[in-house]
Design brief:
alpha+beta, PH-domain like, eight-stranded antiparallel beta sheet, endosome, Myotubularin-like_Pase_dom, membrane, cell membrane
Length: 565
């Protein structure tokens, strides 16, 4: 907008002798104990690898498991993952962590440190985990593994490519084809058009009015044209995602908000959603209370002190206002925050999810993410820190995680309205960090075009759409043009335990969900009965056709043939 800031088939394994592996599985990504399979891991055995994944080094370590105590094992480092396998005889413990998940690697203790297991590495992860490995103190045994981990976990800091660029997996679906910008965009900043009342959701960044209250006639005229395009309203509604005080403060740096003098035909509402720094600190507090241990006695007060669910509530409340104004109020709306790529994306995409049932399907949601987040320039590189060792970067923030959390909250309140299940959302978040796919790499389309991401990497949607059955909600009921308005009150919001506390084996909920499992079995039975019924109908029709043909007179048969000729 003028005068505003720019807004912007399960893959085959490397060896047939390797254990079956699925990096999207919750179980395979966490610490797990499995019966001994007889595999000899002392004889140059292979770890499960993706095509294009190469083994770099391995070393004996002691994994300081926060749940089961010290575990002796061997850790393997590839150009994609850290893989630990225990050496105990009774059962096997496996830890499988994509290197892209790692946020920080620190040395623990020194050569002269005393105490058992006081020398090694501390690893902080982006997915709510911390890992600690103890090594032998003799001969600087941790130096090589520290250097290898640092090099491949932070490739952008070492002039190395992301793993996505060397990933050689093959899928039956091409995920890059799910979204076509030319067919999705009607105008540069248009997000959605209501199919009945023609009200629109527009998005942009803050106007650059500054302390002097600068004006731009073209910008003012443009907003008036948007208002006039919808003949059912007298005023355009503008939603500013920020708290009022923050919007006022932005004037000091050249930003600001729409004044009544400059925009007399617009109504402005502030939604009080806090900035990226507040959200980052809130997630840090949440991580402190969920990993490694959950303190039962003060759980509710500890959760409240993080303010995480309060922020979720504010985002959902804002999106509900946008959706309701468009649908019930029949008013076109304009949404912005400071830059137009964080809170703005949350609000527009959630409002579209509430209003349009298409975006509640698997492919529709993929399109929504591609359109409102990736193509509009959410700064994934800065917010996630892909391949960057600067873990303290002030630009990092869980904005996209918050959005997915809001989607999960909606799916809990409307369990039959979404075609996709919880695992679909968790898989998206896992690969937000993993760097296995090119989908979330870089911060804008120009960077992705420059690096030829669509040509040289795979899309996450290729994986999901090639094994779609794994991500289908068995309770889904297709309903067209039904608007969803979730209840955004603290009484109806809950912590997403299966994501935030999934690494704690004492808290993790039963997997798979027995109710969902039984329902899927019933659906399979139904499909089988429908198939048998169709086969019987075909057989019966064939018999009837044969019977009528054999009883027909020669003249009838000739007439019949001639008719078809």
């Amino acid at each position: 907008m003028l005068s505003r800031q720019a807004s912007q088939k399960i893959p085959s394994m490397a060896s047939s002798s390797t254990p079956k592996y699925n990096s999207n599985s919750l179980e395979s990504s966490s610490v797990k104990r499995t019966p001994k399979d007889g595999t000899n891991w002392e004889q140059n055995e292979e770890i499960p690898r993706l095509p294009g994944e190469t083994r770099i080094t391995d070393k004996e370590v002691i994994y300081m498991c926060p749940f089961n105590g010290p575990i002796k094992g061997r850790v393997y480092i590839t150009n994609y993952r850290l893989y630990l396998r225990s050496v105990e005889k009774e059962s096997i413990v496996i830890l499988d962590v994509p290197l892209g998940v790692i946020s920080r690697i620190e040395k623990m203790g020194g050569a002269s440190s005393r105490g058992e297991n006081s020398y090694g590495l501390d690893i902080t992860c982006k997915d709510m985990r911390n890992l600690r490995f103890a090594l032998k103190q003799e001969g600087h045994s941790r130096r090589d593994i520290f250097e290898v981990l640092t090099k491949y976990a932070f490739p952008q800091s070492h002039n190395l490519p992301f793993f996505a660029f060397v990933n050689e997996e093959k899928f039956s679906e091409n995920g890059w084809m799910v979204y076509n910008p030319m067919s999705e965009y009607r105008r540069q900043v248009l997000s959605w058009i209501h199919p009945e009342n023609q009200a629109v959701i527009m998005r942009c960044s803050q106007p650059l009015v500054g302390m002097g209250g600068k004006r731009n006639k073209d910008d003012e005229k443009y907003l008036d044209i948007i208002r006039e395009a919808n003949g059912q309203i007298s005023k355009l509604t503008i939603y500013d995602a920020r708290p009022n005080v923050n919007a006022v403060a932005n004037k000091a740096t050249g930003g600001g908000y729409e004044s009544e003098d400059a925009y007399p035909n617009a109504e402005l509402f502030f939604l009080d959603i806090h900035n990226i720094h507040v959200m980052r600190e809130s997630l840090k507090k949440l991580k402190d209370i969920v990993y490694p241990n959950v303190e039962e006695s003060h759980w509710l007060s500890s959760l409240e002190s993080t303010h995480w669910l309060e922020h979720i509530k504010l985002v959902l409340t804002g999106a509900i206002q946008v959706a309701d104004k468009v649908s019930s109020g029949k008013s076109s709306v304009l949404v912005h925050c400071s830059d137009g790529w964080d809170r703005t994306a949350q609000l527009t995409s959630l409002a579209m999810l509430m209003l349009d049932s298409y975006y509640r399907t698997v492919v529709g949601f993929e399109v929504l993410v591609q359109k409102e987040w990736i193509s509009f320039g959410h700064k994934f590189a800065s917010r996630i820190g892909h391949g960057d060792k600067n873990h303290a970067d002030a630009d990092r923030s869980p904005i996209f995680l918050q959005f997915i959390d809001c989607v999960w909250q909606m799916s809990k309140q409307f369990p039959t309205a979404f075609e996709f299940n919880e695992q679909f959302l968790i898989t998206i978040l896992d690969h937000l960090y993993s760097c296995r796919f090119g989908t979330f790499l870089y911060s804008c389309e120009s960077a992705r075009d420059r690096e030829k991401v669509a040509e040289k990497t795979l899309s996450l949607w290729s994986l999901i759409n090639s094994e779609k059955a794994k991500y289908i909600n068995p309770f889904y009921t297709k309903e067209l043009n039904r608007a969803l308005y979730p209840v955004a009150s603290m009484r109806h919001l809950e912590l997403w335990v299966n994501y935030y506390i999934r690494w704690n084996p004492r808290i993790r909920q039963q997997q798979p969900n027995p109710v969902e499992q039984r329902y899927m079995e019933l659906l399979a039975l139904r499909d089988d009965y429908v198939r048998r019924l169709e086969e019987l109908q075909i057989t019966n029709n064939t018999k009837i056709s044969s019977s009528s043909t054999s009883s027909a007179s020669p003249s009838q048969m000739v007439s019949h043939v001639q008719t078809h000729l």
